[in-house]
Amino acid sequence: MEEYSIGTLSRRSGVPVKVIRFYTDRGLLPPAWIAPSGYRYYSDQQLARLHQIVGLRWIGASLRQIEAVLAGHTSLSDVLAAQRMYIQAEQDRLRRLELRVAMAEHALQDGEASVWAQLYQLREMMQVTVEERRTWLDRWWRSQLAGQMSEDAINLFVERATAMVSDQEPSEIAASVWAAIRDGQLPRLENLPGRPRDVGIQTEESWSEWTARFRAAWQSLKHVWSSDPHDTAYQEALQDWVRCHGPLTQDTVQRLLDGFTPVAQTFDKMVMGESAVHEGLSQLQEGLKILKNQLP
Known about the structure:
- The chain folds into 3 domains: 3-74, Multidrug-efflux Transporter Regulator, Chain: A, Domain 2; 90-127, no CATH class; 128-294, no CATH class.
- The chain is built from 13 helices and 3 strands.
- The protein has helices spanning 6-13, 17-26, 44-58, 63-70, 76-108, 112-127, 130-145, 151-163, 170-182, 207-223, 232-243, 250-271, 276-294; strands at residues 3-5, 33-34, 40-43.
- Strand 2 and strand 3 (40-43) form a beta hairpin.
- It is elongated, with a radius of gyration of 31 Å.
- The termini are far apart.
């Protein structure tokens, strides 16, 4: 059986001598034997073991995990599964960190003082319980929409928006709420008391009747969602959606724009204008402005 000095083992394996010493001192790579002079000697068995250690380190395994594999206390498949879970968690952490950095960059446009205030608020928000976060968002949405929408409309929006909150970052919450709106899931109105006219919608329909018509119009609009707002198909679908809120007039479109703008601005602040949320909102706003100019 061939034996190597630590220097020869280093050259054959490509692992620095100081790293081999560390693994040996840690007990991961016991030498084949130790000479009376104290020199350590290794064999092909230790070379193969060193290759295992290097391979496990290459996939990010901890020293504790390596010890367990080499001792036969855990399997390589278990280590790989654990590494995949760790990587996914780390990717999620980095994604959230990227969102926070983007928020700070966005806030910096309003001055450094604004950055510190917003970072503090966001950090406080993410450290509280889900229920406390819902309460925080309830107050925040109401402060953003106050005076811009009817009280009933605000209540509906806030109720559905806060119900979706779990452990998401603010930008993730905005994206989730927007996805629900886009898919016709927000708000659920069928069981509301009264009639749509009670909250300013110009129709004599019941909530159930109006909601069915509204969802059908929204689904039609979704089919042309990625089209140019100037396109005939887009404008026709948009007109059907506008008719759900009143007669097809400039006044109805302007009323929609007046109520839509604060919501759009709020979402835009939360996503820094860099996502499909921003694009979808901008598309709809642009379509409404085009339609208004075309109406007598």
